[in-house]
Amino acid sequence: MIDSSTFFERYKHAAQTRDKEAMIALYRRDTELFDMWNAYQLRGIDNIRSMVNQWFDSLGDEKLEVDFSDIQLKQDHNVAFAYAFVHFRALDAAGKVLRQMKNRMTLCFVKEGVSWRVIHQHTSIPISTQNMQGIFE
Known about the structure:
Layout: H1 4-17, H2 20-24, E1 27-34, E2 42-43, H3 45-58, E3 63-75, E4 79-91, E5 97-112, E6 115-124
Parallel strand pairs: 1-6
Antiparallel strand pairs: 1-2, 3-4, 4-5, 5-6
């Protein structure tokens, strides 16, 4: 059985320590990712690697905090999906929040031997009907 905390804790730790290889290891080679930034879709581990490198390298000296909430998990024998809210915060050296956003993440997992890896990830935010801007909370 997949443990919902396993992926989310590993993702959080990899992001907060900027461990690129640990982050990339969460995904299958044939992963497809629907992200919010710069690319409509990313297909394959090489594109995931490029996105992770760009993300972590763009942070400079900032500290990154990641928190998940309202995690829901459903699974069968070899397939699982989860969804949650994720809150990202960039902090300066003194711990002051420089910017933050909360978004939604849906993940599909496939079991490979004893491991579960992401085959699809979809990240989104709601859009305001008033001004057509993203609601980052």
